[in-house]
Predict the 3D structure of the following.
Amino acid sequence: MNGLRLNPQLLRVPLYIAGKSAEQVSQELGLGEVLKLCSNENPLGSSPMAIAALRDMLPKAHRYPGIAERELRSGLVTYYRNGLTEQHIIVGSGATDVLRIVAQAFIFDGGEAVMCRVTFPLFALLTTMYGGRAIRVDPRPDYRFDLPAMADAITAQTRIVWLCSPNNPTGLVLSQAEVDEFIESLPEHVVVVFDEAYCDYVTDPNCVDSLQYVRQGRNVVTVRSFSKSAGLANLRIGYGIAPPDLIEYLMHTVLPFSTGALAMVAARASLDDRTFRRRSRELVQQERAFLFARLSEMGLTCLPSQANFLLVVDPPLDVPALVDALLHQGVIVRPMAGFGLPNAFRVTVGLREQNERFLAALRTALAEASVTPA
Ligand SMILES: Cc1ncc(COP(=O)(O)O)c(C=O)c1O
């Protein structure tokens, strides 16, 4: 690299290090079967209809993607109905890629992006990657977004406000009333992103419907994913919904053939797989309540999540030590320092036997540290 002119802003972006697989952890620690509850994956696997479509498409793996993107957008129009057209939709290689698209499109010559201090780390990372400044606003004491404070943080330099509902890592949702007020207060030069990767698990009737703002033609992008309830995380497929003029602008950042047809046909098929989506949703809702109740009985504090994970805050044992003690019993959970919460960990809602295994490991870890849960 001698003599090369480097981008100093890019050097501020930490290198991405992929988490270890369950198999790797099992080998390294000499454990039996390892339970991975750190990435909010679907414990039921993938939509069977998606897998069938993927198999049918495999013989065409040598071809560049053809009309699959168009078909996925048209499938999404049927899925959502009510005023949305293919021109309202942009497809990306995961919600991650759609977030990248928005960052690249709006943070181009500096500029700022406003976000909560406790949210999905990718918002700050993308802002920095594209040369902007991340403006982090503290959450309220109950860990909810402080939208009035976020509105106060908006300046003439603000390009994007990153929202997330349900928020990763808290699982908390934004309410319609608070967002209505927030949206009304925004200047026109700001685009609001709603990251709704976990929207399929929401039961709270007061949760914001961000698509309503898209239908009103506001500067809003709703980002969703096939990684969670459709169980297609490894295929890397997601999408954004926004007013057509905004989508057309965002399309300028899309590289040719950047999303594979294998992923797109599988995603399209998963939209028709109502049975799998319903099973995924019902499992998470039932097991989330089970885990929440058991953790609360143990005297632990967890937030009322609307997603497929729970956040445990201020456990009676140092979080890195607790996460390590669980790991040595073959259960991987996620410490939340990187998400702005050094005293918390996040656990994915699994099948009943997985949740019971996690709870047993947690009891053992606390008992071995001589911390008696209530
Ligand atoms: C809030 C949030 N947005 C986006 C993503 C990434 O979704 P995808 O797998 O579609 O890139 C995740 C993944 O965990 C997430 O938690």
